[in-house]
Amino acid sequence: MTAEPREDGLTALRRALPEGIVDAHHHLWDLDQGRYPWLQDAYDGEGFFLGPYAALRRDYAPGDLRNDTLPLRLAATVHIEAERDRADQLGETRWLETIHAASGLPTVLVGHASFLQADLDALLAAQAASPLMRGIRSKPVTADRAGATVEGRSCTLQDPAWLRGLSRLRAFGLSWDLRVPFWHLAEAAEVAASLPDQPIAVNHCGLPIDRSPEALAVWRRGLAALAASPRVVLKLSELGLRGGVWDGPGNAAVVRDAVAIFGVDRVLYGSNLPVSSLSAPIPAIVDAVLAGLPDHEPATLRAVFADNARRFYRI
C-alpha cells in the first residue's frame, strides 16, 4: 500500500484557515494624505537596515496589501504605525479610520505616542478613544551595533522618564509593540519584568540580523528572558537580513528556535508588508515560518496565523 503524499505547508495553511489569516504586522501609507519623513524627505538608502528602499517610496493601500498577500487571504490585519510625522500622531489614526471604513482594512491599529511629551496622557486618551486602537509602538533609542552603548541618553530603555511614559499605557488599556535589535533584548526583558501587567508584542523575532553563532546565542538568551514574562508575545515577522538578503534555511532555523522558546500559543505571524518585500515575496516568507513550526496540524496553524493575534490584539 502506498502512503498518501503529505500536504505542503501552504496547502495545509489554506485548509486550516479557509476564511483567511490574520496579519499581525503591516503598514499602509498615502503620500498625499500625510507626511512620512523617511519616505518623502532626505533619502538614506544606505542607513536603512534592509538597504536601499526606493521601491517603498510610493503609496501602499489595502488593495496592495491584499494582492501582495496572495495566494493567502486576509481575514483581519493589525496596522503598525509607519513613522508618520511625529507632530501628526493622531493624524495617522484618523486617516486609517477612513481607510478602514472604506475597505474593511486595517482591522485594528497600533499607533504612536512619544513617551516624553508633556501631554502624553491626553494623547493616549485620544488614541485609545479610537474604536480601532489596540496599542502603541514607540521605539526606544538603541545602539547601532552589539557591544555599543546608549547609556545616559534620552529615550532609551534605561531612561527613567521614558519608562515612566511607557508605564502609562496600562491606564488606557493599550499594549506596547517593542522593536529593538537582538543586543537589547535582555535589557528589554528587565523592562518587561518591571511592568508585569503590560501586554508586550516583540516585533520581528527580536531582529536577529547577525547570524553568527555568538550573536544567535545572545539572541536566544534575550528571547528566553523576555519569554519569562507571561504577557509578552513574539511576532514571527521581518526575517530579512542586512541589504535585503534572504536566507530561507537560516530563517526557518530562527523561527524554530523562537517557537521553541515562546511556544506556539505566544507567537504571531506578521508580514511586515510592504517593507518585507525588499527581501522576499510573501510565499517565501510564509514558507520560512511554516518550515520552523513543530508541525502543520490545524490547531498549530490556526494559533500562529490567526488565533494568537486575535487574542492579543482583541480582534
UniProtKB/TrEMBL annotation:
Keywords: Hydrolase
Xref: InterPro entries: Amidohydro-rel, Metal_Hydrolase, Metallo-dep_Lactonases
Gene3D superfamilies assigned: Metal-dependent hydrolases (3.20.20.140)
Domain of life according to the entry: Bacteria
Domain Amidohydrolase-related: 22-315
Annotated GO MF terms: hydrolase activity
A Pfam family reported for this protein in Swiss-Prot or TrEMBL: Amidohydro_2
Family listed: Belongs to the metallo-dependent hydrolases superfamily.
UniProt cross-references to PANTHER family, sorted A to Z: AMIDOHYDROLASE, BLL3371 PROTEIN
Protein name: Amidohydrolase
Lineage: Bacteria, Pseudomonadati, Pseudomonadota, Alphaproteobacteria, Hyphomicrobiales
